[in-house]
Structures are given as C-alpha cells and as structure tokens.
Design a protein that fits this description.
The protein is mainly alpha-helical. 46% of the residues lie in helices and 6% in strands. Helix 1 packs across helix 3. The two termini are 34 Å apart. The relative contact order is 0.18.
Length: 142
C-alpha cells in the first residue's frame, strides 16, 4: 500500500490549517506559501476535502477554508479515505468490489482482511491534534 501525494498533502494541509487557525477562514494562498504546494493542485485537494465534509470554503474577500471539525475529532483515516478513496490493500476488500471467484476457498483473504483492519485501526486512532506541533501550537475551537 502506498499513500499518494494527494493524501500526504491533505494531511499536511489540515495540520497547517489547525495550527494557523485564527477564528476565520484561512486564505488558500497562505497555505500554498507555507506548504509549498501548487495552488492548482491544492485546489483539487480542497475540493475533495470539501465534498467529504472535512473543510468548508468561502470565496471572495475574507474567504478561504476552515476545518468543519476540531483537530481532536478529525482522524487521519477519514482524511485518507476522502483523498485516496480506499485504504484496502487488495481489490477484493474495496467497497463495492465485484465478488471474487476465489472467495470461497482463498487461503490469503483472511490475511488481507486482518491487515486492512490494522491499517484502519492505526489511521483512525491518529488525529490532526496528534500531529500538531506542541511548542507554539494554537487551539482550534469550533
């Protein structure tokens, strides 16, 4: 399993947003500058995060993005599922996967199911709050 750049950047950006929250919307250009990510690429990530209810965006003067959940309630698992689509290590475990012809006698599916459980458990226990810097880090209050 490999997490894409989109997934890694999404996690970074959400930590950045939590650390730099000042009560209002954070301009995308500010995030782009701090994280050194192309604005066009970041716009695509923010669209995915917005569609999945992770961030809220407003256009125009005073606009930008803010988290829809507090950092302690926003898990890395949720973010990665929004950007990666799935964390399943094999195709047969993906949501809405076509039934596998080998399912009734496959000797490895239990291994992959267990691994998938470990992946989900790990990422669902890590929050944005866990990743925020401790020295100088601000509190994000919704």
């Amino acid at each position: 399993m490999k997490i894409s750049t989109r997934g890694r950047y999404a996690v970074r950006v959400l930590v950045d947003m939590a650390e730099n929250y000042n009560g209002g919307y954070i301009p995308l250009k500010d995030i782009v500058k701090r994280q050194e990510i192309s604005q066009k690429y970041l716009e695509g990530i923010m669209l995915l995060l917005s569609k999945n209810g992770i961030v809220e965006g407003v256009h125009g003067k005073g606009g930008g993005y803010k988290l829809k959940k507090s950092p302690e309630d926003l898990t890395v698992g949720e973010i990665l599922r929004a950007t990666e689509g799935t964390l399943a290590p094999v195709a047969c475990l993906e949501e809405n996967a076509a039934p596998c012809d080998r399912a009734g006698w496959c000797k490895t599916v239990a291994l992959w199911r267990e691994f998938y459980g470990v992946i989900n458990d790990f990422f669902d226990k890590k929050t944005i709050k866990d990743l925020m810097k401790t020295v100088g880090g601000g509190e994000y209050v919704i």
